[in-house]
Amino acid sequence: MFALPKQRLTAFNRLTTLKRFSTSSKLLGSQTPKKHNGTAVVFMNMGGPSTISEVYSFLYKLFADGDLINLGVGRFQALLAKFIATRRTPMIEKYYKAIGGGSPILKWSTYQVEEACKILDKTNPESAPHKPYVAFRYAHPYTEETLQKLLDDGVTRAVAFSQYPQFSYSTTGSSINELWRKTQILDPNRTIQWSTIDRWPTHPGLVKAFAQNIKEKLLEFPEEDRSEVRILFSAHSLPMDVINSGDAYPAEVSATSYAVMNELNFSNQYRVVYQSQVGPKPWLGAQTAKFTEKIEEKSKGIIIVPIAFTSDHIETLHEIDIELIATDAKFPEKIKRCESLNGSQTFIDGLAELVSDHLKSGQLYSKQLPFDCEIGVGRDVFNHPSEFFGDHTKTIKSASEEKN
Amino acid sequence: MFALPKQRLTAFNRLTTLKRFSTSSKLLGSQTPKKHNGTAVVFMNMGGPSTISEVYSFLYKLFADGDLINLGVGRFQALLAKFIATRRTPMIEKYYKAIGGGSPILKWSTYQVEEACKILDKTNPESAPHKPYVAFRYAHPYTEETLQKLLDDGVTRAVAFSQYPQFSYSTTGSSINELWRKTQILDPNRTIQWSTIDRWPTHPGLVKAFAQNIKEKLLEFPEEDRSEVRILFSAHSLPMDVINSGDAYPAEVSATSYAVMNELNFSNQYRVVYQSQVGPKPWLGAQTAKFTEKIEEKSKGIIIVPIAFTSDHIETLHEIDIELIATDAKFPEKIKRCESLNGSQTFIDGLAELVSDHLKSGQLYSKQLPFDCEIGVGRDVFNHPSEFFGDHTKTIKSASEEKN
Predict the structure, then answer these.
(1) Distance (Å, rounded) from C-alpha A133 to C-alpha A150?
(2) Alpha-carbon distance B364 to B374, whole Å?
(3) pTM for the full model?
(4) Minimal Cβ distance to A269: which of B252, B271, B367
(5) Cα distance from B285 to chain A (closest Cα, Å)?
(6) Structural domain boundaries in chain B
(7) Which NCBIfam families does the record associate with it (chains A, B) (predicted)?
(8) I need a surface site. Which of A329, A377, A396, B122 has the fewest CB within 10 A?
(9) ipTM of the complex, rounded to two decimals
(10) A367 vs B: CB within 8 A
């Protein structure tokens, strides 16, 4: 069902054939226009197993990630992760079988970054060619695989674009940390100059794309009920110890939700809720499933909007569609899930605009990131993002300046 | 120190002398222009003891309010409230003594609503005169005192304007519920037509006033440190069982904070934190005091912004100024509290604009309020706000229509 179309599967192979611009052109005299090497756009996300056989390694990597989950056992986390992954694999394999045999996140991420790069080649010729890559934290292509590909492709300028619109140290932070760790190993001489787009919770492209999808979903309800349909913005939850540490995530999730409601002129009642709690620790609520159960009887209709993900994945296709709506709901006909952003052209235009603005601004990372890294508790990572991305007070020369 | 200036103390007395327009004018023939009775603008808030002797009754009323706090003892809540209030009174009396002998919330609320009404008389002549009132939930003037005054003054049209910018069922909900209960007793024939402004988390006046105060506070730091000063938006916390029930509050607090940062062009690092936790139950964090303690050493400066209150009160003047900064901080010189909105003209202009827009729109209550009331668990209250405010599908005739 979610098998990758051929043109997607070959995306990474094709990238390696992109023309390499000689970096030695920098040695030419100033009268000769310098060639540059283009710009890699790397979509970072948690990823998901594309096939059933990848489920165990996905779960193991996820539970072993101390940036994402602190299992409270220090250096024994990898051991405990093996135990948990082994125990959970049969159940999670069933979930992936139920949604067609794998996560569509690679398909959609590849499509989105390729399309964004096509737009960028037109809007930002000074930094072209824009080369699309995907780097996942817990599934292929792993961070180190993509990093090696960048090095093989002779990339010298790359944008690490977090596909979590709202920053959490446990998600975007983890991806950046991993990129840093692998850079230490694979690119110790730092041939690639990185910058990052580490959050974009209220970018107009994101907000408008969500609003469009909600409006379309509203049309599926009877006209007389439409204005009374409730909108539940559902984000992946986090444990309360992460929330209470001061993680940026819940405030940014709320900012996105509020911006979408503003775009909709607050036409409907709404609430921010949280899903996918796991384990015995307290997590942030209201819980999507419990809250839906509480309100479904008195509601004319409910739309659940996956507000913190940019494409479909197990939490939309299984947890919401199959568990919450098809299995557990008392009034399943009242509850619909908003289409994920997936191939939304509005969204992809927004992604391209974000990268375009980022490249033109010369910003290396957001003003907020050093604060997140100070509050976070990553192991084997930099103390300050400037160690990775360079001095924040200096900005990268824009590609056009480098070129001329 | 916070004694009320004479012109404030007499505000309520003066209001009773406002000219009463005869309601019998409605009986006149259609050719005769009808007189109307003006518009009462009622600022609702929790209030605070204006004198030390009011501390016990304030605490008792607060802990007895089942809409605010569920002590988990059902109908014995009043009894337990007496016990808690008695135990806490000596300590809280000390706090109020330390800030000058009482809360300034009545002084500021009276000033704000009077000034807003003066503006409204100019901008909205069709609904003039606008008559200023304050109704507190736990301190004088109590809801029932103010309601009686409205009735004595012959008011027939009133706006219940919640002075909590962000909606929580435990705050704004509690004030509306109390107004409903007292209306049942004091105005059973419903001579007053009420509407409510129940939330305004991102109103431009509010946002700009906070941004102005933050900019002014930033000037107190050395110029070279200014851009590195961290902004902590501190809101009163809520117990996790309220958060997990789906209360609107945390998302709206985040919306305000994000809007203020947007107004400031994200010039500084910021975080949303929560203060004033009490009792053994888990509350929403990050906790303002703990978080400040964690970051103060590495911070160049910190500004704490009371983002969920519209004037000074014990939580700013004692909890932040005296406890957090003057007593507990290791680096008190680095930490400053942003001025509360108090007498800010930008804020007061915004308040007037809010009421003006509300009156012109004919809206009775926000689209969101019925959902909040469905999720909330108030006792002895309406099932739907339309029972109090009328049918939401019909709007109140604007005062000008009534007049002509």
Answers:
(1) 8
(2) 17
(3) 0.89
(4) B367
(5) 4
(6) 11-201+348-403, 206-337
(7) hemH (TIGR00109)
(8) B122
(9) 0.88
(10) yes
